């Protein structure tokens, strides 16, 4: 009986110690608000990596997935502690204005030009993305734009500008103000073209009849960065949680999970070397 009692007591002591240790290591503020781009959500990446981060750190990540411009605006309004986006020009402006205290490279993929298999603008025979856009412009074939100031939208507008073309306002150019999945679906419905990040395309490729018609141009690189919001702007910012996430996603484990994540057999994101 004494041995049983001693055993029970030892179990209770160990359980108490574990509970106390877990409590001691748990964050003071476990709520972490993250604003991010739709591609990180629609590819399923966040579902694959956030549970691991939460289990290891005790933080509970609340995600709002919108276009990059809107994600940064949420942070400016004090509604996000950390940002994960992909529009370097907007990110640099955000940092220059003092809204963020730290930005780190996380990963990259690239953009691809999608279109119908019939390829009415003969984009498949273009010499590069500029030539592809010129062919679409010349034929007036429908082009669906996100039109939401997302990272994809910013890139697309820059590509038109680089080609010295201004499609805005023309009947065949349609700005829908929605996310990447909706954009791809609309392009498929109207038999038109669109620009997509490769990761979201992998998630959507079996749902539509579009295909990749132009890719690999150096102007289509799509880098992602994580930004810690400046607590001097918003004292309520969970700075400890934001830094913990930024360090984790750019650290060995976060990077390994990103590198190993695939959708429909396709590599969605790549690591900087």
Task: Provide the fold topology.
Blueprint: H1 2-25, E1 31-37, H2 38-42, H3 45-57, E2 60-66, H4 68-76, E3 82-85, H5 88-96, E4 100-116, H6 129-139, E5 143-145, H7 151-162, E6 173-175, H8 180-190, E7 194-197, H9 198-204, E8 210-214, E9 221-229, H10 239-249, H11 252-259, E10 262-263, E11 266-267
Parallel strand pairs: 1-2, 1-3, 5-6
Antiparallel strand pairs: 3-9, 4-7, 4-8, 4-9, 10-11
Q: What does this protein structure show overall?
A:
The protein folds into 2 domains: 2-108 and 223-267, D-Maltodextrin-Binding Protein, domain 2, CATH 3.40.190.10; 110-220, 3-Layer(aba) Sandwich (D-Maltodextrin-Binding Protein, domain 2). Helix 7 (151-162) links the parallel strand 5 (143-145) and strand 6 (173-175). By secondary structure, the chain is an alpha/beta fold. 44% of the residues lie in helices and 23% in strands.
Short structural summary:
Helices cover 44% and strands 23% of the residues. It has 273 residues and is an alpha/beta fold. The longest helix has 24 residues, at 2-25.
Counted beta strands = 11
- The helix/strand class is alpha/beta
- The percent range for helix content is 40-55%
CATH architecture of the largest domain: 3-Layer(aba) Sandwich
């Amino acid at each position: 009986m004494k041995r049983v009692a001693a055993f029970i007591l030892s179990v209770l002591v160990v359980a108490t110690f574990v509970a106390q240790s877990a409590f001691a290591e748990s964050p003071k503020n476990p709520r972490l608000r993250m604003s991010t781009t739709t591609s990180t959500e629609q590819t399923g990446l966040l579902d694959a990596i956030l549970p691991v981060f939460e289990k290891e750190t005790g933080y509970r990540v609340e995600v709002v997935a919108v276009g990059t411009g809107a994600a940064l605006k949420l942070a400016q309004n004090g509604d996000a502690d950390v940002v994960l986006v992909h529009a370097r020009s907007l990110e640099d402006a955000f940092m220059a204005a003092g809204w963020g205290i730290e930005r780190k490279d996380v990963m990259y993929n690239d953009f691809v030009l999608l279109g119908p298999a019939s390829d009415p603008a003969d984009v498949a025979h273009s010499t590069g993305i500029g030539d592809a856009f010129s062919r679409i412009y010349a034929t007036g074939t429908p082009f669906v734009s996100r039109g939401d100031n997302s990272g994809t939208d910013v890139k697309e507008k820059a590509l038109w500008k680089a080609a010295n073309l201004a499609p805005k306002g023309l009947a065949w150019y349609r700005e829908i103000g929605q996310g990447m999945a909706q954009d791809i679906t609309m392009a498929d419905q109207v038999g038109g073209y669109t620009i997509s990040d490769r990761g979201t395309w992998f998630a959507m490729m079996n749902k539509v009849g579009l295909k990749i018609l132009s890719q690999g141009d150096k102007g289509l690189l799509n880098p992602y960065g994580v930004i810690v919001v400046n607590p001097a702007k918003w004292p309520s910012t969970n700075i400890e949680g934001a830094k913990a996430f930024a360090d984790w996603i750019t650290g060995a484990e976060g990077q390994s999970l990103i590198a190993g994540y695939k959708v429909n057999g396709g590599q969605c994101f790549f690591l900087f070397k």
